[in-house]
Amino acid sequence: MSEHADKDKVGEELAAQRFQMLEDIAKELAGEVVFPTCFDTVLRLRKELQDPNLTISHIARVVSVEPLIAAKLIRLANSAVYAAHGKQVVDLPSAISRLGLNIVRATALAIAMTQILHAKEMAAYSQVARSLWDHSIRSAVGARLLAHTYTRINPEEALLAGLVHDLGAFYMLYRATQYPELRERPDTVKHLIMQWHEGIGVTLLETLGLPEEIVQASVDHDHPRTVPDIPKTLADIVYISNILAGAHYEWLYQDFDPQAVAFTSIHEKYAGVLPELEVLGREMRSVLS
């Protein structure tokens, strides 16, 4: 057998490797999910910050033991996304007071997601992973803008929902790095992600203990459907922001025309928020990446 035999797996052998990955994920999801090490902080923080009535000073004490998260929170609080009409904050309690508990949790998740992106094992998927991260940031900012502009839904809850709606795709990319044949052919996992990331993502969000409304908002977010003229639910917001953020037509909608009337009309209807989405998306990406 040549030293390149693994690289040359095609057809049935490559399909078997893809099936093995899905089977392994299914077993893991049915038991105890093993998150990447970088999610340890997220899980610990979620456990310590479960009480919604915690004081700002207590939250600050919990977060301060994670310097990277603390620094990102202060920087985010001073970004254009949150400081348009406020003075600059220089301490963690002030930053948390401005941002709120949801954003503390979202920032911890965002840092974990970026650490997955920067893992050396992810090199083979760098282009897809970077595109996915950019899309997640744009979706998060778009969801916050839509919630604030059109609904009474908490904008920070909407931001968190937009940020994590594709968490299943991140997780599948991470798991794919553990299979040599898939690392050699990164394009082969795109179809798997298109078909399976939503269901896997729902399970992951539940395991992470995210609120039920955020979990449900991620269900079928990539399946074309009719939306009301004005978004009424968090699911509507995530669906619309996903489209405004690009929706990865090149691989998530391989059999769907991105110029379909429903998609075109959504871009036209919400054209007014697009310039701000672009500006705030770049700002938030620079803070969290």
Structure characterization notes:
With 289 residues, this protein is an all-alpha fold. The chain has a single domain, classed as Orthogonal Bundle (Hypothetical protein af1432). Helix content is 65%, strand content 0%. It has 16 helices and no strands. It has helices at residues 11-30, 40-48, 56-63, 67-77, 92-99, 101-118, 126-150, 155-164, 167-176, 180-184, 188-207, 212-217, 234-244, 249-252, 261-269, 274-288. Helix 4 packs across helix 6. The longest helix has 25 residues, at 126-150. The chain is globular. The termini are far apart. 40% of the residues are buried. Mean pLDDT is 84; it is low at 1-10 and 250-254.
Can you describe this structure in just a few lines?
The protein has 16 helices and no strands.
Shape: globular
Q: What structural class do you assign from the helix and strand content? A: mainly alpha
Order of helices and strands: HHHHHHHHHHHHHHHH
In the CATH hierarchy, the architecture is: Orthogonal Bundle
Helix content: 55-70%
Number of strands: 0
Q: What Rg, in angstroms, do the CA atoms define?
A: 19 Å
Report low-confidence residues grouped into runs of 5 or more. 1-10, 250-254
CATH class: Mainly Alpha
Largest sheet features: none
Explain the layout of strands and helices:
Elements: H1 11-30, H2 40-48, H3 56-63, H4 67-77, H5 92-99, H6 101-118, H7 126-150, H8 155-164, H9 167-176, H10 180-184, H11 188-207, H12 212-217, H13 234-244, H14 249-252, H15 261-269, H16 274-288
Helix pairs in contact: 1-11, 2-6, 3-5, 4-5, 4-6, 6-7, 6-8, 7-8, 7-13, 7-16, 9-11
